[in-house]
Design a protein that fits this description.
The strands form 3 sheets. The chain has a 5-stranded mixed sheet with strand order 3-2-1-6-4, with helices on both faces. The chain folds into 2 domains: 151 residues; 135 residues, Rossmann fold. Helix 1 packs across helix 9, helix 6 packs across helix 8 and helix 8 crosses helix 9. With 309 residues, it is α/β, with parallel strands linked by helices.
Length: 309
């Protein structure tokens, strides 16, 4: 089996890493356990009741795997996560080459190709793999197994109902629904505040979108981890996101397209919704509406003959 024994980042980071490893687990037909998903396990029906947050849907049920009668406590989850991290760290430091488990630990910025020789030979060794690293990746496997991964991360009916209600509300009087992710909080210091944009800049970008879609009723679904100053967005039609990280993320996936600073938050929404995404890389950047959205908008505009008729 594979065990992800160290956590990396917040919800978006965890989902993208988890998904790549699920794809690898399906490819090599082995079990994946992810105790490092502890903080977010309660958000998804698929992980809510499993202490290990395992993925083994592609394998025959193990006689030793008995579903929990009730969800494990946050304390138990955190304890397991820290224990597995300590075990992997100790094994890596000591260099226990003949132990039944093997550690693959990636350095900062190091990429491990899940279809490459290093990872494949580790799997074929038959040893349990303890994984520590952020960039375990295989775009090909991720795409191949995406339908199963998407189903695994289906949100609960309660969350889905709230998301759907907010999207219906936003679409009621609009032709185009644009998702906007305003990332604050930790982005004030991340890379020296490179992607920490003020409300005036977001407002300017949003107004430019309206200018590119004349005659269309444009509404913005705005999701942020800080309260929104409505006065900064005068003249724009705005609907707030549902309000939690998970619900905001999956609501963005239901917009026509989305924009925001570089973030796995909108990266995951793009993957789930298969919607276009524009990354706001700098304060000088101009936002150009995706061609598919422009074409769709033009298709609904009457031509001169129709207007005359």
């Amino acid at each position: 089996m594979m065990i992800l024994s160290r956590r990396y980042g917040q919800l978006g980071n965890r989902l993208i890493l988890y998904s790549n490893l699920i794809a690898a687990a399906r490819h090599y037909r082995i079990e994946l356990r992810n105790p490092s998903f502890a903080e977010y396990a309660s958000l998804f029906p698929s992980t809510r009741e499993d202490l290990w947050c395992r993925y083994d849907a592609h394998l025959k049920p193990s006689p030793n795997h008995r579903p929990s009668r009730r969800p494990p406590s946050r304390r138990r989850r955190n304890a397991l996560m820290h224990v597995m991290q300590a075990v992997a760290k100790s094994m890596n430091a000591i260099g226990m080459r003949h132990y039944p488990a093997k550690v693959i630990r990636l350095g900062a910025g190091e990429i491990c190709d899940l279809e490459g020789d290093r990872f494949r030979s580790a799997v074929e060794s038959g040893r349990t793999l303890l994984l520590q690293g952020w960039l375990f990746r295989s775009p090909r496997l991720l795409e191949q197994h995406w339908p199963h991964i998407r189903d695994f991360f289906t949100v609960s009916k309660t969350d889905r109902d709230v998301i759907d209600q907010r999207i219906r509300q936003a679409r009621r009087d609009s032709d185009v629904l644009v998702g906007v992710h305003i990332r604050r909080g930790d982005y004030a210091n991340y890379r020296g505040g490179q992607y920490y944009y003020d409300d005036a800049l977001y407002s300017r970008w949003m107004h430019s979108v309206c200018d590119q879609l004349p005659g269309q009723r444009v509404r913005f679904l705005v999701c942020s981890n800080e309260p929104l100053d409505e006065s900064a967005f005068t003249g724009l039609n705005i609907t707030h996101g549902p309000g939690t990280a998970l619900r905001d993320m999956y609501a963005l996936a239901d917009t026509d397209w989305m924009m925001g600073p570089p973030s796995t938050f909108t990266g995951w929404a793009e993957m789930v919704g298969r919607r276009p995404r524009i990354e706001l890389q700098s304060r000088q950047q101009s936002v150009v509406v995706p061609p598919s959205v422009v074409s769709q908008s033009l298709a609904f505009q009457p031509n001169a003959e129709q207007v005359a008729a």
